[in-house]
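Sequence dictates fold. Below is an illustrative record:

_____
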Amino acid sequence: MKVYYFDSSAIIKRYVKEKGSQWVKSIVESESAQMIILSQVTPVEVGAAFSRKVREGVITPFERDRVLGVFLKDCQIEYKICAINDKIIKRAINLTCNYLLRGYDAIQLAVASFFNNSLINQQLYPLIFVSADESLVEIAKKETLVVENPNLYT
């Protein structure tokens, strides 16, 4: 089974048409056995991103409310949501000491690293870290995560 970790910059593409949206949908809506992991902070970031799109005139407030509702329902049904614990917070703090990271990006990366290590310890395939944030992708590579950037797909 493939395990994907989507940060907010990637999962939002399932709900709002952007470069890479088709690729994200093909992964998330695939019939093959897979797991999609999100951090507990991802819904906050996604809500903020949808609201930013309203301010930018990309979507209407009605569209924001609709796609946010669909996303939150999908969080309950389709995604595994990883709670933030002390180990993840400590790992995120360490990441901010080593890289130029915003707080939530450090948490996203710490959660992905936590799950990746767990999979590897069970001798399973590593997870695939999915992000449309170029700098986060580069840091994830330095942290030896397998990465995908949906912006590289049309």
Q: What stands out?
A: The radius of gyration is 15 Å. The chain has one domain: 2-152. The longest helix spans residues 103-121. The domain at 2-152 is CATH 3.40.50.1010 (Rossmann fold).
